[in-house]
From TrEMBL:
SMART domains: PP2C_SIG. Coiled coil: none annotated. Residues 1-36 are annotated as: Disordered. InterPro entries: Bact_Sigma-Reg, PPM-type-like_dom_sf, PPM-type_phosphatase-like_dom. This is Serine phosphatase RsbU (Regulator of sigma subunit). It comes from Streptomyces spectabilis.
């Protein structure tokens, strides 16, 4: 999220005024503070002068010493040592100057990249509609916090809707697909009354993105060619809807089913998942799976296969369910502590940086109990639809 600092109103400004333009004479406004419009070009110009001027000064010092200093013209051992020391100092100054400029530029690039990544996969609030939540991600690309995993939580008129997905591949190459799917979900989650319509919106958005990417990257092979590398791209998607009474409904396209933490970790039942989005069209009928109910204090854990499929040096898989079971014994379950415990054990298990992106999303039900009649009414309405 990019935050802008609000501007402080000027003293004595009683009414709102638009921008005022007027000509200034040579002596007009000398005692006024320069505006930010003129300060920024001055700072940029000063930086350019320092960037180009300091190396020129170092070079001038070296040339002046070599041509004007009598000691530099001598060939004795002492003169050579002094000359070497002077040029060593000049070279060291140049190196430190270049290093400082590169570090400053790298810091600016990281700030811009971090802001862009937070806009794409924006930080989630700690609470939403009576649910406490926390999320974490590990990227397989060094220096990137966003990879091929995606998640989002939206409070809508139809309930709290969650998406967790995993793009084929990882790292920076998958960011474009992540942006297409997340952008579509953020609109469809509020517009569509039923989960099947949300899933179809995601499918259409992914298809458009792959067509445009195919025309850009492989214009000769054609957008619909079966041998086109883009035609093999796919995204696993898990759509979850949590109603006001805690009922959990889901549509799963090739993604791992979530876990429910209630004293222990138990995989929520959901049946056979649909194929991932991309290679095959969705079937005509999309039955929404009922995955049970989140009672007050229960937690729901969504994850990508980068967590469950992580292996150590001996080839053993990461025991995700056992680690979640240990975290579920704490009452109440803290979503943030669950994230920290899983990632700490995961990094110790693999003993290195992950080879695949790994994302976790934990939601805890902090709502009060609701009458059972309301639960049955919501269930019947969903079954009839």
């Amino acid at each position: 999220m990019i935050r802008t600092k609000p501007r402080t109103p000027r003293r004595g400004a009683g009414t709102r005024r638009g921008p005022r333009l007027r000509a200034r004479g040579p002596g007009d406004g000398c005692d006024e503070r320069p505006s930010a419009t003129f300060e920024r070009p001055c700072r940029r110009g000063l930086r350019r002068v320092l960037t180009l001027g300091l190396p020129a000064v170092w070079g001038a010092v070296a040339i002046t010493y070599k041509l004007a200093c009598p000691l530099a013209q001598q060939h004795g051992l002492g003169a050579r040592i002094v000359t070497s020391a002077v040029f060593f100092a000049v070279g060291t100054g140049l190196i430190f100057h270049v290093r400082h400029a590169l570090i400053r530029e790298l810091r600016q690039i990281r700030e811009v990249a971090g802001a862009a990544q937070n806009v794409l996969l924006r930080p989630l609030p700690p609470r939403i509609e009576g649910l406490a939540l926390a999320a974490g991600r590990l990227s397989a690309s060094h220096g990137a916090s966003v990879g091929g995993d995606l998640y989002e939580v939206a409070a809508t008129d139809h309930g709290v809707r969650v998406v967790m997905g995993d793009v084929r591949g990882h790292g920076l190459a998958a960011i474009g697909t992540v942006a297409a799917v997340l952008g579509s979900f953020r609109e469809a989650a509020h517009d569509e009354p039923e989960l099947p319509q949300v899933l179809r919106r995601l499918e259409r958005a992914l298809a458009r993105h792959l067509r445009e990417r195919s025309r850009t990257e492989h214009p000769a092979s054609g957008a619909a060619a079966p041998d086109n590398p883009v035609a093999e791209e796919f995204v696993t998607v898990l759509l979850v809807e949590i109603s006001q009474d805690g009922e959990v409904w889901a549509l799963n396209c090739g993604h791992p089913w979530p876990y429910r933490l209630r004293g222990r970790a138990q995989e929520m039942p959901g049946g056979e998942p649909l194929p991932p989005l991309g290679p095959f069209p969705l079937p005509a009928e999309l039955p929404v799976q009922h995955c049970g109910r989140l009672l007050p204090g229960d937690a729901l854990v969504l994850h990508t296969d980068g967590v469950a499929d992580a292996r150590d040096g001996s080839g053993r898989f990461f025991p995700l369910q056992a680690v979640l079971g240990e975290a579920a014994r704490a009452q109440p379950v803290s979503p943030q502590q669950v994230i920290q415990a899983v990632y700490a054990r995961l990094l110790r298990h693999i003993g290195r940086l992950p080879s695949d992106d790994a994302a976790l999303l934990v939601l805890r039900n902090d709502r009060k109990r609701v009458p059972r009649q309301q639960t049955e009414t919501g269930r019947c309405a969903r079954t009839m639809s």
